[in-house]
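ARCHIVE CARD
Drawer: 12
Card no.: 0347
Subject: one protein chain, sequence and derived structure
Cross-reference: see card 0346
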Amino acid sequence: MREPTHSSGGSGQAPVSLASTILSRLADVGLGRIILTAASRLSSTVISFVMLWGLTFILTPEYYDLFLYTFALAVGIGFLGTLGQPYVVVKHVGEAAKANNAAILKFSVILLLLGQVLLFSGAAIAAAIPGEKEKVYEMIPAIAVFGAIYGLSEFMAAYFRSQMRMGMALIPRENIWRVAICVTILVIYNSAWRPTAGTFLLVTTGLLVIVVAYQLIAFFRSEGYRWLSAKLPARRDLLGLSRESVYFFLVQVAIAGENYITTFLVGVLVGIDAAAAYYIAYRISLLLILPGMVSETIGGPMIAARLKQNDRHSAQQLLGFFSLFSFSAALCGFVFIWFFGSAVLSLFGEGPPAMFTVLIILCVGSLTTAFIGLSQQFLLLVGGERPYLQARLTLFAVYVGLIFVMGTAMGVVGIALARLMFMAATNGFQIVWCARMRRYDLTAASLLRPGRARADGATS
């Protein structure tokens, strides 16, 4: 979809100060909404680290590694099983567009169910392959069930984000579910029972079912049941949604594949122990992306609404506000990790001697992402999914080559440097494409250039 070319901002507006612009956008977004989302995202990450640490007390080293591997695999499969529908919902389903929600929701739910059918079909085929299997293959049924429930939770989170109900979008899975897992770990630790990796994956699945059921109840209370009998969108709109879904799914594949393949290649090139340490450092570096996740959670639906209204001025100011917020908060986090990162790494074992260097390199990569706030989500909102996918896949192919070359020559530090180059190149593409093709400035510096906020054209 092409982003509209006209502006409602007007070029004759009087210039305003940076402070006034920030305060105006802060009032628009709502400080309470930012605090709730940031608190939920931050506490979710902290709880996840507590969970990882707690698991070391109830799982043997073999089961611990197997659980982390299968858990990450199940999350990735669940993410892909949505067939791009969370992006469709955030882009097209809006709080103020109830009349149009029913048809789009029906379309998205049909594709979501199709994704689950494909997920279980693939799991059945993999489980039916004859011959002696590794333990991970014995867990395929549990992985598939978890993936299906996780995909449904992704869809529910996207729906409530589109309605600006951030508490319902985040708290059930990001906080309640993870706390429940930690409580379960504590109960198991104080008992004589010690689960296998597969058993504990089923336990986490059962807890996830409870919180998703709660979201489903809230969903049906909000939308009712009439959307089930609604007509699908008109043929032209249906083709547009289908085309978007394909590109959104391929973007999901690129994102999930990047994270999974990187961890896999680290294990192949420098060993499983280094791969586990790299995974921990990578998870810590994601702390700096949390402000960007807050921006995407709140800003995505808000900017989508402005784009529907052809209000370029407000959309650009929101972009600048969220980018500045993301980068400022991430920079504070980087300073903290610089001084205390070694102590945090030591909680999860010694790891390779260069692990702190790896952590800092990964954190610099996260800073480049924080600098552009909403990053990829904005490209998907303004019809940039195809060029973004093409660029990301091309850069990913180069990235895999760099991993082999630099990983062989420099070990895990070389792999971290390869990732930094990949992230910088990907983020650079997003900045340039949005500036040239849609006349929007994604960067945290855009509020310092008020002329950008009144850009009035899109070029092809």
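Annotation on reverse: The first helix runs from residue 18 to 29. The chain has 17 helices and no strands.
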